[in-house]
C-alpha cells in the first residue's frame, strides 16, 4: 500500500501517525511550532485522507506500509490507534525507528481483568455494530468521546471540522481499525522493545485513562511518562503549547 505523506518543517525526522477515523490534517495545529524543531512526516493511514486502501486494513500490513512511507532512522509519534501501529513498527523494525512517543495510546486498547485502565470491550463492540448502519453518526459519537475532558468545546469543533473537510474514511478501513483496537495486545512484546519509549497522556482522557501509565511502567521500566492533567484524549488540540513542549522534551 502506498501512503500519502505531508512533509514540512526542518530538523530531525519525526513521523506522525493519526488515530481512528481521522487523517493527517488533525496535526495542523502542530505543524508550525513542532516544525521549528523537526522535519515532520504526517502519514495518512490506508483508507484515510489521501491514502488508498488497496488490501486489508490488517495490523501487519498497515505497519509494513507505514515503514515503507517513513524515512529510516526517524523518531515516531503515534496517537491512539496510531500509537499502537507505531509501536508495531518499532517492534518489527527497530533499526528504522530511532525512538517512539505514544500519545494517549497503549499496547492494549480494551480492558480485561489485569488491564483495568482501558475502554470496556462492550463499548468498542457497540461502535463496530453501529458503524455498519450509521457511519457518520458513529464517527461523531466517537469524536465526542475523544473531546470529552477538554476544557472547552473547541476540540470537538476542530474534530468535527475534519470530518467535513477531509475525504471520508473508507468503511473497510474503519472496520479494520476497530478490529485492531479490539483484538491487538502488544503487552508481552513490549518487554522486548529495543527502541527508547516515552508516553504522554491527558489527565481527563475518557478513552485511554492516564492511570495506564503505571501499568506501562511495570512492563517497560525505562519508560518516560508525562501527563497533561487538564487535557483529554487529544492533548495536542486542547493544549498545543504544552503538548509541543512536553513532546519535544520526551523525544529529546
Give an overview in words:
Helix 3 (81-92) links the parallel strand 4 and strand 5. The longest helix has 13 residues, at 135-147. The chain has a single domain, classed as Rossmann fold (3-Layer(aba) Sandwich). A seven-stranded mixed sheet has the order 1-3-2-4-5-6-7, with helices on both faces. With 252 residues, the chain is α/β, with parallel strands linked by helices. It contains eleven helices and seven strands. The chain has helices at 28-35, 59-69, 81-92, 121-131, 135-147, 154-165, 171-183, 187-190, 212-219, 235-238, 240-251; strands at 5-9, 13-17, 39-43, 74-79, 97-103, 197-202, 224-228.
In round numbers, the mean pLDDT is 95
Q: Please report the number of helical segments.
A: 11
Rough outline:
globular
The CATH topology turns out to be: Rossmann fold
Instruction: Give the strand order, joined by hyphens, for the main sheet.
Output: 1-3-2-4-5-6-7
CATH class: Alpha Beta
Distance between the termini: 31 Å
What would you call the quaternary organization?
Answer: single chain
| Total strands | 7
How many discrete domains? 1
How much of the sequence lies in strands comes to 15-25%
Poorly predicted ranges: none
